[in-house]
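ugh ok so i messed up the first submission bc i forgot one of the chains. this is the corrected input, ALL of the components this time, i swear. 574 residues overall. if the numbers dont match what u have on ur side tell me asap before i send this to the collaborators (the ones from the other lab, u know who)
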Amino acid sequence: MGIEDLAESLGQNVLTTTLGKVIGWGRGNSVWPAQFGLACCAIEMIATATAGVDIARFGSEAMRASPRQADLMIVSGRVSQKMAPILRTVYDQMPEPKWVISMGACASTGGVFNNYALLQGVDKIVPVDVYIPGCPPRPEDLLNALMILQERIKAQGILPRQ
Amino acid sequence: MSSTESMAGTEGVTISRTGQQGAFGGELLTVNFGPHHPSTHGVLRLIVDLDGEQIKRLKPVIGYLHTGIEKQMEALRWQQGVVVTDRHDYLSPPINNLAYALAVERLMGVEAPPRAQALRVIMSELTRLSSHLVWLGTSGLELGAMSMLMYCFRERETILDMNEEISGFRMHTSYIRPGGVMADATPRFLDMLASFVKEMPGHVDEYEDLLTMNPIWRARTIGIGRLSPEDAKVLGASGPMIRGSGIAWDLRKTMPYSGYESYDFEVATSDACDCYGRYLVRIKEMREAVKILDQALQRLPDGPVNVDDRKMLPPPREELETSMEAVIHHFKLFTEGYSVPAGDVYVAVESGRGENGCYIVSDGTHKPRRVKFRSASFVNLQALERMALNHMIADMIAIIGTADTVLGDVDR
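and heres the new structure output, hopefully the right one now
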């Protein structure tokens, strides 16, 4: 095959892109959440994984029991003072790059429980990427948050996190 | 214990050595389960002493979801407290509402009108169904029957749609309130309920087809987690835990409330005393719940859904435009609330998990002095060690599953 022929046939079969876009595309479409159920929101998180809503359409159905296999922590529910260090341990055990969705009013701000027992917002101990309002949010809200996160991951590429 | 505690990590499964000799010549190992573990139904932590794979001691550690709900209620007015009751046993919010509402009503000496009582029964039974569906789905998933989760959550969505239709909210409805219910049932809700009552028995058949004679399910549950009737009584178990041990104790029959005495239903029991028996009890309860729903729908009485007391519930919107008194009542209710006569009262209702009691102390002001919940999960959790002793560690998953503890209910 002559070089001109090669160039002609490659021209029809090769996509050119940047490394950042490919990695962003791959990461964004396979965000594996850690299975970290806390309270009421965890039930809606399970509902998001079932047939009716089907988070698998967005590549995130693989809920990992081990934080070491997970990219995303969905803090689904209220975080008590006793649970806070454990949550941080689990977060620390997740490999980079990692993201956090704070699901529901309790995880985001303490919700209706402004008292001694609850952490008033999980962003006091871990950095949060997307907050979801609601008590508990609908499964569709979780999907929406995931899609927002996917957009960000895709835009991020291979650059280290700001 | 001190060496165990210090070595037990805070996440997943951690193993530490006890130095004690086991029956098989090996050393007893202390294994820490949770609080972040996929099979403990939330944030339950268990410290287990193992001889080989046999459980020799089991100690639940709770409090990882302590929310301070009881203390929080002391800071809320009587009608605001309902919102918080939704969130302790988050799989059966309307039943929690009902326990609280009945307690407040008993102190105030009022009784909800008949239509409200029937709607309360409807919501309670729908909740019992959705709670059992979550239990069946997650327990099935843990023992390897993953399709159960998909089927059960399909029907649960139908129930949540009904919740949304009647109250505007999927899970935490705050629908049952002192004095009655939040709003009357819409015609669409009654249509949805009618078709649900027609379809649900077929779905329960589907679940039974998948599990009841399934050899894997039977091998994992029959003879596992035995709880004798005597132990069940001594440990204060209630709900499907005690009925699975052959004792027909159901508050809807033994201490009826909200007109349950007028419904025709059977108390599901099983003499198997094991995980399989508790499974059968819950399946039967789902069928009975559909029966109750059908009866409630057939003879739903007409009339108001709230007590006619302007000191307790806000006046209708129309009245506000014509009556000065109504405006005053409205203003008073939403600025200071109503007060409840001094005294204390305990009311218990049957939730999906057992006796869900509410103890209230009032000092005659517009906020409770003390609210205490007797939660079924907390008491049922005591029986865990008795059930798990001398079983394999893998069977513990089946046992925790059929105990059906909700950690929000345990820790409150």
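quick check: The two ends of chain A are 48 Å apart (CA to CA). that seems consistent at least. Chain A is about 40% helix and 10% strand.
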